[in-house]
Design brief:
Elements (H helix, E strand, L loop, with lengths): L1 H28 L5 H26 L7 H26 L10 H25 L12 H26 L4 H31 L6 H24 L12 H33 L1
Helix pairs in contact: 1-2, 1-6, 1-8, 2-5, 2-6, 3-4, 3-5, 4-5, 4-6, 4-7, 5-6, 6-7, 6-8, 7-8
């Protein structure tokens, strides 16, 4: 389904353009915010990546309709699992903030085994235990569509909680950080979605789906480590990272690579199946 790939490509391009626009407006006008308006603005900006993707998806999906309510439902389920399970597990059970960034090896292993597996399993669960057995999940590409929706739901909660916990964020650097999270989470979810689609429509071995979640978790953990290396800074109320744009470029490249590879694999599988008939 070309619409799914165009929707994801549209998300990447539109989000990068939007980030550039917000960053430029912030740099030019230097808007003054009260603490409450800064917090509200940050929360609203955290919703933008999901709104952009849904808008692009709806536009592309007119000729190849997908149930809009079900896409929104999976998005909401991804967000709910992030808020109710993912973030409490990572922060309150494993306390990753206390040890994750101790050194490079700890960051990589913790990012994969704790953060990565938690996030990617919950995105998988959001699709597997909702849409997977539905008649509307009728082709392999649907796995990517619904998993991306779950990933963006998860990313939205991560961004909203980041804003709330910091009492707001610097407008320019904050929108870059939110875009990075959204693009990365969507890209990793696309990997899981590909494996979900194959698992439903082909007789894959038992290790197939665990392999998919593992690959997504590894990509997740490695990305967060590399991102930390290239940006070398944080985003807070008072300002931005040392080089936040490098993180955005990295996230866009990762999302493009993940979703592009998934799209190519699906097309190859379809062509192989047609040739075998």
């Amino acid at each position: 389904r070309r619409g799914a790939w165009r929707s994801n490509l549209g998300l990447i391009l539109a989000l990068v353009v939007f980030v550039g626009l917000v960053y430029a407006l912030d740099a030019f006008f230097h808007p003054a915010f009260t603490p409450s308006t800064l917090l509200l603005t940050g929360v609203l900006l955290a919703l933008v990546p999901a709104v952009i993707w849904l808008g692009v998806f709806y536009q592309q999906d007119r000729l190849e309709p997908e149930p809009k309510g079900m896409v929104l439902g999976v998005f909401a389920l991804g967000a709910l699992l992030a808020a109710a399970v993912g973030m409490p597990l990572v922060e309150n059970v494993f306390h990753v903030s206390d040890w994750l960034y101790t050194d490079a090896l700890t960051t990589i292993l913790g990012g994969i085994l704790v953060v990565g597996f938690t996030q990617e399993f919950l995105k998988y669960a959001a699709v597997r235990y909702s849409m997977y057995n539905s008649a509307e999940f009728d082709e392999a590409t649907d796995g990517v569509v619904y998993a991306t929706a779950a990933g963006l739901g998860y990313a939205t909660v991560l961004n909203v909680m980041f804003v709330v916990q910091n009492g707001g964020v610097d407008l320019g650097a904050g929108i870059i950080r939110m875009a990075v999270v959204a693009l990365a989470q969507a890209g990793f979810a696309g990997i899981t979605g590909y494996f979900l689609g194959r698992a439903k429509f082909e007789h894959e071995p038992l290790w197939w789906m665990p392999l998919g979640v593992t690959l997504a978790a590894v990509a997740n953990g490695l990305f967060n480590w590399v991102r930390g290396e290239v940006t070398r800074g944080g985003v807070t109320l008072s300002g931005g990272a040392a080089n936040p744009w490098s993180g955005l470029v990295l996230a866009a490249a990762v999302a493009f690579a993940c979703l592009g590879a998934v799209s190519w694999l699906i097309r190859r599988n379809v062509q192989s199946a047609l040739a075998a008939k």
